[in-house]
């Protein structure tokens, strides 16, 4: 199953556009380009294991496709390089909790988002809200690959004294959240970090909503939860939530 590339997600109240069946056909073609890159590089196996070099190569190639403006692409890649995105883990003890796990998990979420996009959007354009949003493959990629930017540089490597299989004492490395980290909320922190590298994306509110709300109710303050259902009207929010959970729970990545 394949799907190829494009550039923006806008709200209809500003641009007065909506997605049609023809647009979905184009989107499928655009998504194909990203899935072709993934399949060619084979960065993640069915058992959730991943090749760090192939993961990075795939993300770099997808970035070049999503951001045709070289200055933006360079800034995006430089941010990832300088914030341990390609070398850090995605968690301390759960999914992708090894070196390079953050990039692998983010890529797996991207892959799932691309696979689920067409069925979800085909359903959405039959609803009364179809005139409120339109979508592109590049924004699906940017939202998915940046959804956990808050975890870049978030962990330090510590060591604990433990016994090996032979009963000998040894020091085992493990990841721990840095004690000096300050966080405004998992999703919101990722939005801020995305805007550090791509400040022009401040105009792409539906994309930012998806990154901000990708954790669902588990990452909301009381005041944010009050109007949370409004965000679920944005299909990209639901798409990213589904992709994130399926990547972690189905693929262990």
Explain what you see.
The protein is mainly alpha-helical. Helices cover 52% and strands 9% of the residues. It contains eleven helices and four strands; from the N terminus they run βαααααβαββααααα. The protein has a two-stranded antiparallel ribbon. Strand 3 (155-163) and strand 4 form a beta hairpin. The protein is globular, with a radius of gyration of 19 Å.
Short account of what is shown:
This protein is mainly alpha-helical.
Largest sheet: 2 strands, antiparallel
Strand content: 5-15%
In what order do the strands lie side by side in the largest sheet? 1-2
Number of E-type strands: 4
Helix fraction bin: 40-55%
Using only C-alpha atoms, the radius of gyration works out to 19 Å
Uncertain segments are 1-16
What is the CA-CA span between the terminal residues?
21 Å
Calculate the mean pLDDT score and round it.
82
* Helix and strand run: EHHHHHEHEEHHHHH
Put simply, the count of helices is 11
Shape, principal axes of CA atoms: globular
Question: Which class of secondary structure composition applies to the elements?
Answer: mainly alpha
Features:
two-stranded antiparallel sheet, 253 residues, 11 helices, 4 strands, single chain
SSE blueprint and pairings:
Layout: E1 10-11, H1 12-15, H2 21-41, H3 52-66, H4 70-82, H5 101-124, E2 133-134, H6 137-146, E3 155-163, E4 169-177, H7 186-197, H8 205-212, H9 222-226, H10 228-231, H11 235-249
Antiparallel strand pairs: 1-2, 3-4
Helix pairs in contact: 2-3, 2-5, 3-4, 3-5, 3-6, 5-6, 5-11, 6-8, 8-11
């Amino acid at each position: 199953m394949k799907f190829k590339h494009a550039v923006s997600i806008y709200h209809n109240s500003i641009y007065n556009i909506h997605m049609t069946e023809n647009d979905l056909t184009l989107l499928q073609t655009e998504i194909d380009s990203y899935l072709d890159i993934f399949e060619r590089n084979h960065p993640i196996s069915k058992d959730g294991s991943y090749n760090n070099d192939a993961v990075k190569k795939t993300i770099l190639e997808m970035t070049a496709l999503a951001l045709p403006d070289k200055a933006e692409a360079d800034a995006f890649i430089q941010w990832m390089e300088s914030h341990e995105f390609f070398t850090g883990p995605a968690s301390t003890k759960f999914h992708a909790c090894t070196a390079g796990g953050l990039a692998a998990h983010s890529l797996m979420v991207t892959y799932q988002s691309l696979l689920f996009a067409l069925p979800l959007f085909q359903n959405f354009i039959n609803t009364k809200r179809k005139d409120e949003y339109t979508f592109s493959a590049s924004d699906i990629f940017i939202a998915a690959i940046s959804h956990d930017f808050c975890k870049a540089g978030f962990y330090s490597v510590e060591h604990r004294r433990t016994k090996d299989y032979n009963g000998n004492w040894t020091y085992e490395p493990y990841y721990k959240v840095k004690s000096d980290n300050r966080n405004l909320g998992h999703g919101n922190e990722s939005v801020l970090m995305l805007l550090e590298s791509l400040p022009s994306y401040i105009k792409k509110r539906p994309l930012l909503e998806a990154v901000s709300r990708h954790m669902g109710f588990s990452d909301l303050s009381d005041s944010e939860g009050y109007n949370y259902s409004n965000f679920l009207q944005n299909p990209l929010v639901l798409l990213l939530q589904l992709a994130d959970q399926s990547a972690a729970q189905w693929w262990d990545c």
